[in-house]
Structures
1.
Amino acid sequence: MTILDKITTDKIKEVALRKSLIPVSQLEQSVLFERATVSLAKAVREGSGIIAEHKRRSPSKSVINNSLSVQDVASGYEQAGASGMSVLTDGKYFGGSLDDLLLARAAAQFPLLRKEFIVDEYQILEAKAYGADAILLIAATLSRKQIEQFSTFAKGLGLDVLCESHNEEELQKSIMPSVDMLGINNRNLKTFEVSLETSKELIKQIPDEFVKVSESGISSVEAIKELKPHGFQGFLIGENFMKTDNPGESAATFIKQLR
Ligand SMILES: O=P(O)(O)OC[C@@H](O)[C@@H](O)c1c[nH]c2ccccc12
């Protein structure tokens, strides 16, 4: 059993419990449910392209940073000129929560991505109710039919969809009009190996109309300069910022060097 299988198995149980505690009707009553979303895909296309992540810990790195306020990180990233922010909401493996999303929303106006292992439409309703503008779908854990169902459902709520893959088969099943952004994860979620070559290879199969995002293991401005000519517009960066005392400032320094 890979770590991704374990996370998914736990997630299915967690979502069943959540559903029994908070009914859909209650999520739909959230004031944020009425909020007009901001397109992450558009922000990435038109801005720095940096999607900066809030990540306290991960199965591959254990603790990254446990002492920051998510509001400070959100406003720091926004002021730094990031196109958007990815907020990890998984608790068990990443130390995040839906409250992190809510707090980020309270502190910033730029687009927020709910970074979660989505296995059920219910989590997409949660994303909307807690202030997200976009969701992540992980092709490794979903069938083409599920990607279609979840992405269509998200679009109906005004949320953008980033669908991530790590190999050709995953990418091929993610290519559909209800997906806005195709992400290539440089980290293999099954083995944790990281290589930017994954991005450079797989992007060749992405049709023009999709926003193309390279994810994980990006730790230098040079890496961005290397990836851009291959056609990437978006860059998802977590640890490189989060491991510092001031992620917002680190992001600002980084983004300035891109200009
Ligand atoms: O911290 P990094 O190496 O910059 O990676 C960020 C992001 O890409 C990574 O956290 C991520 C990409 N896809 C995911 C899916 C689930 C959890 C986490 C992720």
Note: The first helix runs from residue 3 to 21.
2.
Amino acid sequence: MLCTVVHAMAIPTSPKERNLNATAAVAAAVVPAAGRGERLGPGAPKALRELGGVPLLVHAVRALARSRAVGLVVVAAPPEGVPEVGALLDSHGLDGKDIRVVAGGATRQESVRLGLAAIPAEVEIVLVHDAARPLVPVDVVDAVVAAVRSGADAVVPAVPLADTVKRVVPQAGGRPEPVVETPERATLRAVQTPQGFRRAVLCEVHEKALAEEASAGQAEGALPPVTDDAGLVERFGGQVVVVPGHEEAFKVTRPLDLVLAEAVLARRRASDGF
Ligand SMILES: Nc1ccn([C@@H]2O[C@H](COP(=O)(O)OP(=O)(O)OP(=O)(O)O)[C@@H](O)[C@H]2O)c(=O)n1
Ligand SMILES: C[C@](O)(CO)[C@H](O)COP(=O)(O)O
């Protein structure tokens, strides 16, 4: 399996890339994997923490590679770890897909932008998938790609909420927080990845966000944070649609999530040799 380490602006042409040129309908995926994982606690960068003896990142890339709709995966790694991440991915069988590694950035948004810059121009459909969502089923990946192929500009997989949600006024020092409202739960969704986009739309909103950041500078409150790529599409007036996600596509964020992920993986391995 070839795993080429490239700088975002200098992409070598490989035989696999030439195949990709012939099939623009094949999707490429960006995997932001440059986060520290502060909420998971001390240890290696989150993408390299192990689940069932295999790094989360490898699970996430495998989950994408399982889809016939995905032809290229670009991983945005911690900047200091690009060669190591390349070697790690090379050492795992990844279904013959073209896997590349670029240096990620200081924020998730920047990591996605840097990954996006490494995708050949002729690719028309781009997925963005967190390294921190190792167990997304292939059916979810396929459903997201299918919705973009059917004409949507931006597609997110999502699940209904189990808890009632309240909007509050945050308070310092653990003081009780006044409740402002209780949104109607039936209209709320918890959003997952991979999120899918028409490439031109994703590039445009990332470019606009970068320009907006440059002009807003550090002015407090100038730019409300956007935590997902679909949020950028919404910010600039685009239409985002939701397809069904999956409860096993949850994000490994806190220590308990890793315990749950181990249990899900053990169940899969016991039931189908996953
Ligand atoms: N500078 C960053 C920050 C985050 N991510 C990636 O974005 C995904 C979702 O982010 P999250 O779960 O919040 O990861 P972390 O930022 O690592 O977590 P934390 O906020 O707990 O530090 C992860 O795959 C993470 O590696 C990234 O590529 N570059
Ligand atoms: C993209 C995402 O996983 C969708 O749920 C989420 O928004 C990432 O947020 P985080 O703050 O980086 O965990």
Note: Residues 32 and 108 are 6 Å apart (CA to CA).
3.
Amino acid sequence: MDKRDALIRLSGLKAGGDRSPPDLEVRGLSLAYPDNENALREISLAIPAGKITSVIGPSGCGKSTLLRCFNRMNDLIEGAEYTGSILLEGQNILARDTDVTLLRRRIGMVFQRPNPFPKSIYENVAYGPRIGGIRRKRQLDAIVEHSLRSAALWDEVADRLYESALTLSLGQQQRLVIARTIAIEPEILLLDEPASSLDPISTLRIEELIYELKHSYTIIIVTHNMQQAARVSDMTAFMHLGRLVEFDRTDTIFTNPSRRETEDYITGRYG
Ligand SMILES: Nc1ncnc2c1ncn2[C@@H]1O[C@H](COP(=O)(O)OP(=O)(O)OP(=O)(O)O)[C@@H](O)[C@H]1O
């Protein structure tokens, strides 16, 4: 089995199948936590495939909660209850019988703070493919190199692959986490404020990387940083108090929003 076959097998794609990102559509999604009945209220939106969608809005409006619905991370929160559906290629991923492990392979997530494993740089990236059944060193080497290159980190770490990931700078760690996510070939990437703990230069590198990655993935990014949303995304969703207020092309949201609440937020009148 060559590397591509291995990746295809891991991602559940058909052999020789295309890598065009799948459609993702949210329909009437509501979510309640025990102490917040309206964390999400009747959200509906179609995430365009192969594009970057930003989710913006004031603190506590439900951005991260929405993001976590896409790979069922809210299942891990006791008492979180949701209704509605999210269709991935027409199949409701919120259905009880969804294989959540496979789903999380198809929809990878990167969190706010880099969370590499306390292992070598190589092991961080090889871990997922190995769990997925790839054992041959040559194949793993190829996946590690490809993933690190895709995450724009290879040149900085090629000669120190067996050093601890914790010796990397925070910005490098976040790119490593992105490489680790890419290594299992997801189709969709969820990024929850991926640059918020980074310095401006590392932030710029992550933004450039996100922009590059959109050629291969559908990306949904939660950000507090409106300039970042304006710079990197094709589409922007503005949320407030658990509702989706407006969803449109990013340039429209930032230059000619149709809702007063959106305008107030992007012009800094609140939030
Ligand atoms: N694990 C949880 N348990 C209970 N309530 C939660 C949990 N996570 C979030 N909430 C609540 O749900 C609402 C939405 O939170 P969420 O974190 O999704 O908002 P956010 O827009 O991402 O906020 P921020 O920008 O501050 O990260 C808030 O009222 C929050 O207190």
Note: The domain at 3-14+22-266 is CATH 3.40.50.300 (Rossmann fold).
4.
Amino acid sequence: MLPIAIEKPVGLDGPLVRDKSHVSNNNEEVPAHDVHNGGLSRYLPLSRISAEVQKPVSGATKLRKMLSETNELVVCPGVYDGLSARTAIELSFNAMYMTGAGTTASRLGQPDLAIAQLHEMRENADMIANLDPFGPPLIADMDTGYGGPIMAARTVEQYIRAGVAGAHLEDQVLTKRCGHLAGKRVVPREEYYARIRAAHAARVRMRSDFVLIARTDALQSLGYDECIERLRTARDLGADVGLLEGFNSKEQAAQAVKDLAPWPLLLNSVENGASPTITVEEAQQMGFRIMIFSFACLAPAYRAIKETLTLLKTKGVVGTPKDLTPVRLFEVCGLQHSMSVDVEAGGFSFANGV
Ligand SMILES: C[C@](O)(C(=O)O)[C@H](CC(=O)O)C(=O)O
């Protein structure tokens, strides 16, 4: 189900090469922040580049290999903008998830109700997926595919060109809503299958390792057996991974893994949503292969912003911790790399430091 296609690596062929100091003596990856004091730089200076240095591999190929060559659970924090993605990269997560709910909230200030469309989603995913060509692969939300089969295919093509490693495609009606809200409606089986066929055909045409994740939201209205039927058919139509949205219980989640084995399943963890909280360890034991935490960044960001703005409103101060200097925040966003680009090019912008 998960063969590795031969694919031209996505990323920059030029001077951006991975600093070998990230690899320890026993060949294990050393977290970037341990090496570079804040995950500042993953790139070698031009002067240290030689022929044998590692080239970037596409996120799609990386993700497919994680699924086909290991038994690990791929843990993906849900990121929604540049800073949350940079933070996940700083902490050396193996993969990331771009949440549609978070993209809609942060870019449009709107709820997760089919308001963000393909161009907003693609643009956000493109930015996040390309922050670090050597970084973690990005799984993205592709909702309903934003139309019929033609749009589902177009979405896959655009996501692949943007460097997205994989995405989930669901069976809700086009006027969809967050999977953890009541009142969801799904399209008939054949309409869903046409979306999946179109998405799979697009990935084959693009000769990409893009990981197609079939999601069903049918549990609420049609029940568990219908979900298993839909996912089995999606698998047979070429989907690489399954996602049953909104489990009612831990037992049901474990049962779905068994019923669809050995096909890999993704678990969407939305704390305080429709499903019980399942820990990474529990998901691992159940046999899930990917776990996304959709609200991992969005919910705490809202809380922190609100607390800070309340302080500003009531006390007239912001109260930023002393170590959170502007330089520190810019470092998270690749300041050192930007500076090295200028210096290597003979620029003078940083002759007097920053
Ligand atoms: C996974 C999801 O599609 C997302 O956008 O992150 C949402 C998350 C949410 O709104 O709770 C979903 O589960 O539908």
Note: The pocket of alpha-methylisocitric acid is lined by residues 78, 99-101, 112, 141, 178-180, 245, 268, 270, 273, 294 (CB under 6 Å).
